[in-house]
Amino acid sequence: MSSSSSSSSSAPAAGSRRPLCLIPGPVEMSASVLKAHSTPATAHTDPVFVEAFGQVIEKLRTVVGTETAQPFVIAGSGTLGWDQTAANLVEAGEEVLVLSNGYFGEGLADCMEAYGAQVTRLRAEIGNRQPLAQVAQALRAKKHKIVTVSQVDTSTGVLGDVKGVCDLVREHSPETLVVVDGVCATAAERLYFDAWGVDVLVTASQKALGCPPGISVVVASQRALRVLAERRTPVAAYYVSWARWQPIMQAYEARAVKYFATPCVQTIFALNTALSELLSDGMEAVFAAHERTSARVKAAVAAWGLQTVAVSGEVSATAMTAVWLPETIQASDLLPKLKARGVVAAGGILAGHAQRYFRLGHMGITATQDNGFVDIMLAAAAEALAECGHSAAAASAPAPPRRSASPPRL
Ligand SMILES: Cc1ncc(COP(=O)(O)O)c(C=O)c1O
């Protein structure tokens, strides 16, 4: 799709032994991003860096669809965004509703509790998301300061209904802040921050943004920042305090320097390049490329006679796919066979089910560039499954579900 496509891809040369990293993040990166990441030591006060940082803040607004929200670009991983959100917005005893579709929903709930929140976990059955009627009921049942939704829970490949939740909040509980975990979604799954009414989007550099790990990206609405300003108690954290970071972000955006803690200079250079690549095509084209790629992968899974963990197309992520394995195959049997064919995939991470499924990441340049990664991934998976003794023909009528008739709740 991209004008910057195959020529800037970091595809291993034919015969290269480097396997493709096709897990649901970190992801493969373009050659230009890798080059930007390997710049020599540069002061965080250098005008070249100041310009790059300013551009990153501006471009992030475009990527997520906001004009007025404040991006925070801070050294750390995606988890740091959970801490930022909880430390700044939660006061002890406040109610938080967590829509949990897997491992990462549970982690976000644990993080909220660590900052004193009273958390209600609305858990979906494995592979599904909460019916909106259930969310509406929970929102009406008591006043929640925050509702969280994982746009993609990377443990299951289930797509949260961010727009649906935003609409419900407006209708039933307009003061509740909508916090979205977009770590495995941002720049792959459609999200329109202002139009939908998102308050906080938490993401990270190493997934569909197409960068190395190392940057926690959080975008906070002006409404969320007002809630922070109106706290009764001080923020009991230092590094993650938005009051300390906002002047830094504002300074760099005004192409000036202000110091609080050293920014990760090279990763910010890389992020600036990655964001330019995304925006050169435009986000609608980026989303459409992820949708096309995902449809190919889901069709391949069906052709293998297997089922995705996500129970329907409506609740399936486009950034990744989690696939139930036949009874006879463990993830630990399959993954080395995939790697021998040049593809690093991931096993399961749901407690009690880790061996029963595997996960493929197909976000970032794997989806947006014409590099053949998806062909390599699908061919390797088909061959590795066959080497494990799986026969698509035998499985296809009907595919053996690995879920029990009434699947366990998370
Ligand atoms: C949905 C989701 N949230 C949060 C995280 C945590 O991010 P990190 O591992 O970068 O700290 C991940 C990591 O994969 C994730 O997939």
The number of distinct structural domains comes to 2
Alpha-carbon distance between the two ends: 38 Å
Identify the overall geometry.
Answer: globular
Assign the CATH class of the largest domain: Alpha Beta
Secondary structure tally: strands: 14
- Mean pLDDT over all positions: 94
Q: State the helical fraction.
A: 40-55%
Structure description:
One of its GO terms (molecular function) is alanine-glyoxylate transaminase activity. With 410 residues, the chain is an alpha/beta fold. The chain folds into 2 domains: 5-30 and 283-395, Aspartate Aminotransferase, domain 1 (Alpha-Beta Complex); 31-279, 3-Layer(aba) Sandwich (Aspartate Aminotransferase, domain 2). It has helices spanning 5-8, 31-37, 47-64, 78-89, 103-114, 132-141, 162-172, 193-196, 222-229, 242-253, 265-281, 283-303, 331-340, 365-368, 373-387, 392-395, and strands at residues 20-21, 70-75, 95-100, 118-123, 146-150, 152-153, 158-159, 177-181, 200-204, 215-220, 320-324, 343-344, 346-347, 357-361. The strands form 4 sheets. A 7-stranded mixed β-sheet has the order 2-10-9-8-5-3-4, sandwiched between helices. Strands 11-14-13 form a 3-stranded antiparallel β-sheet, covered by helices on one side. It has a two-stranded parallel sheet with strand order 1-12. Strand 3, helix 5 and strand 4 form a beta-alpha-beta unit. Residues 2-7 and 397-402 have low confidence and may be disordered. The structure holds pyridoxal-5'-phosphate (PLP). Pyridoxal-5'-phosphate (PLP) is lined by residues 25, 77-79, 104, 150, 153-154, 181, 183-184, 204.
